[in-house]
Design brief:
With 176 residues, the protein is α+β, with helices and mostly antiparallel strands. The chain has a single domain, classed as 3-Layer(aba) Sandwich (Aminopeptidase), CATH 3.40.630. The chain has five helices and seven strands, in the order βααββαβαβαββ. It starts with 6 loop residues before the first strand and ends with a strand.
Length: 176
């Protein structure tokens, strides 16, 4: 059994992209995340305006990824404005003090890697003076993952992900 002590979380490097794209492709095929196959690309995974991004490694192999993004940025879905407004009401902070947990994926091979990645993103958001928030597909396993870690549901917002229209669940990190 692998211990979480055997997992190392570190900032993402350009050289991680080939492994991360394989993980993302597998996640899309098995779990439908990301929803659109067309976004299984390096420029979707690593966007220019991200606040930070990390990978989990085990035995020298990359096994997962997470990023923090600002709330509303050019080219994002208009539904994110609705989400941002709800997050602001729920947390009492302005949009520039929110950090959206995003591009979160693991290969499923190392138990605990997702929790460590999420913990890193929450810690980094806090250190930057931001409140971590996220939106999640209502019918996926990820919703239960966040609930078990104390994330609070604060509403829903319609998202248009390619041809898929989703009533995404909006969540706020524990303690906010």
């Amino acid at each position: 059994m692998v211990s979480t002590f055997d997992i190392h979380v570190r900032p993402r490097l350009d050289g991680d992209m080939p492994a991360l794209l394989r993980i993302l492709q597998r996640s899309h095929e098995l779990f439908g995340y990301p929803v659109r196959a067309t976004v299984v690309r390096a420029d979707w995974l690593a966007v220019s305006d991200e606040l930070g991004a990390w990978v989990a490694e085990h035995d020298g192999a990359v096994v997962g990824h997470i990023a923090l993004h600002p709330t509303a940025t050019p080219g994002h879905d208009a539904g994110e404005d609705e989400a941002s407004a709800q997050w602001q009401r729920a947390t009492g902070v302005t949009a520039d003090r929110l950090a959206v947990v995003s591009r979160f994926v693991t290969d499923g091979s190392v138990r605990g890697s997702g929790t460590l990645l999420l913990d890193q993103a929450v810690k980094a958001a806090g250190e930057a003076g931001r409140v971590p928030v996220l939106l999640v597909e209502p019918n996926g396993d990820a919703l239960g993952f966040y609930r078990r870690r104390g994330w609070r549901e604060i509403g829903t917002a319609v998202q248009q992900w390619g041809e898929h229209r989703v009533e995404a669940v909006l969540m706020v990190a524990p303690g906010h």
